[in-house]
Amino acid sequence: MLDPENIRQRILGALPGAEVQVNDTTGTGDHFEACVVSPAFAGKPMVQQHKLVYAAVQDWLQTGELHALALKTYTPEQWKKLGPR
Amino acid sequence: MTPELKARFDEEIRSHKIVLFMKGNAMFPQCGFSARAVQLLQPYGEIHTVDVLADPEVRQGIKDYTNWPTIPQVFINGEFVGGSDILMELAERGELADVVAGKKAEG
């Protein structure tokens, strides 16, 4: 069973300096959602942005330990434009 | 992935405008994310769905084909668009119609 901090650390490892928030959406330790803001996303289409994040947890997705990771990815500029939520 | 399977994916994606690899089918999605993808795509015309639960080879094969680890997976106009999160984001930004119309590359 994973917890949000496990996922968060992996994403931070892959995208140093990113802002990362992870929630367990079902409380069962296998369905999560993550919001990731990283300058590394600049100029990349969403498919590539999500691939960067998925790569950080590839092994958990493969084994099924991590069943679902819903993603929202933004560059710092996009994030700023969205404003406080 | 076998060359036959790759050829099958190529063909399926080329011959339909909207292709959704999902769990279950449009009438009976077997997963919340697949259900959401169907819902988001339905306004834009006929969706060709492939049920990955029906064939383990397809279920793993499509992940290898796109190098994308999760289901559902959406192709529009022959291009891999992404999973349900990206569809949702495109819909929220009002860009999904343009992608379907082939007016705009996803970005």
Task: Write a compact overview of the structure shown.
The complex is a heterodimer of chains A (85) and B (107). With 85 residues, chain A is α+β, with helices and mostly antiparallel strands.
Write up this protein.
The complex is a heterodimer of chains A (85) and B (107). In chain A, 41% of the residues lie in helices and 24% in strands. By secondary structure, chain A is α+β, with helices and mostly antiparallel strands. Chain A has one domain (4-82): 2-Layer Sandwich (GMP Synthetase, Chain A, domain 3), CATH 3.30.300. In chain A, a hairpin with a 6-residue loop joins strand 1 (19-24) and strand 2. In chain A, helix 1 packs across helix 2. A four-stranded mixed beta sheet of chain B has the order 2-1-3-4, with helices on both faces. With 107 residues, chain B is α+β, with helices and mostly antiparallel strands. In chain B, strand 1, helix 2 and strand 2 form a beta-alpha-beta unit. In chain B, 45% of the residues lie in helices and 16% in strands. The mean pLDDT of chain B is 95. At the A-B interface, helix 2, helix 3 and strand 3 of A face strand 4 and helix 4 of B.
